[in-house]
Amino acid sequence: MTNHPILSRRKWMLHSGGQHIVVVKGMRERFSHPLMKAFLWALYLPQYPNMSIEIRIGDRYKPDVIAFPPENELREGTPVFWGEAGQVGGQKIHKLVRRYRDTHFAIAKWNTPLEPHRRWVSDALKGVSRTAPFDLIRFHEGSAEQFIDDDGQVQLTHDDIEWIRL
Q1: Which of 137, 160, 154, 159 lies closest to 41, judged by CA?
Q2: Which string of b and e fits 121-150 if b means at least 16 CB within 10 Å?
Q3: Going by DSSP bridges, is the β-strand pair 81-85/65-67 parallel, antiparallel, or unpaired?
Q4: Does residue 71 contact residue 99 with C-beta atoms inside 8 Å?
């Protein structure tokens, strides 16, 4: 847990790129999970300006962070971005990368080495013809204080984090 003034509550109003999101931390949810969702949102918002968190899209799986093409106001069909925060199973990734071959995927981890994840994601990608990247991201302890100011402004880029593009 952090002593950050914005993140001391269960509901956080965060801002980035002239937009805002409300992140709700579940009663049994680890602090890092909603924080990683917010970081993924802010990190990829410049590339995908209609990014959302925690919305159902009519798929068996529910993404933590999702974006559709700007002209797709109904949020149907193939997303352009899909982000997962924390634990995600190999079977889920295996199915998603085959179903959404043109979707940019990112998995965020908290204080976890990326190399073991690189291996199983690489295995999931074998034999799949894809047009979009797959990113693995590691956030460290202290990221809340580093990337969120006292007004809830989230600022980070890929230069600020450890990441691998597959």
Answers
A1: 154
A2: beebbeeeebeeebbbbbbeeebbeebbee
A3: antiparallel
A4: no
Mean pLDDT on 86-108: 93
Q: What is the pLDDT of residues 140-153, one digit of tens each?
A: 988 989 999 999 99
Alpha-carbon distances, residue 99 vs 46, 57, 136, 154 (angstroms): 25, 14, 19, 32
What is the torsional sign of CA 161, 156, 144, 23? negative
Reported as a single tens digit per residue, the pLDDT across 4-21 is 767 777 889 999 999 999
Three-state secondary structure along 34-47?
A: HHHHHHHHHHHCCC
Which CATH code, of 3.40.50.150, 3.10.640.10, 3.40.50.2020, 3.40.50.2000, is assigned to 6-165?
Answer: 3.10.640.10
Judged against a pLDDT cut of 80, whether residue 74 lies above it is answered with no
Enter the pTM of the model. 0.92
| Inter-residue contact 26 to 54 (CB < 8 Å) | no
Contact criterion met (CB below 8 Å) for 127 and 97: no
Q: Which of 161, 162, 104 is nearest to 131 (CA)?
A: 104
What sign results for the dihedral spanned by CA atoms 43, 38, 81, 79? negative
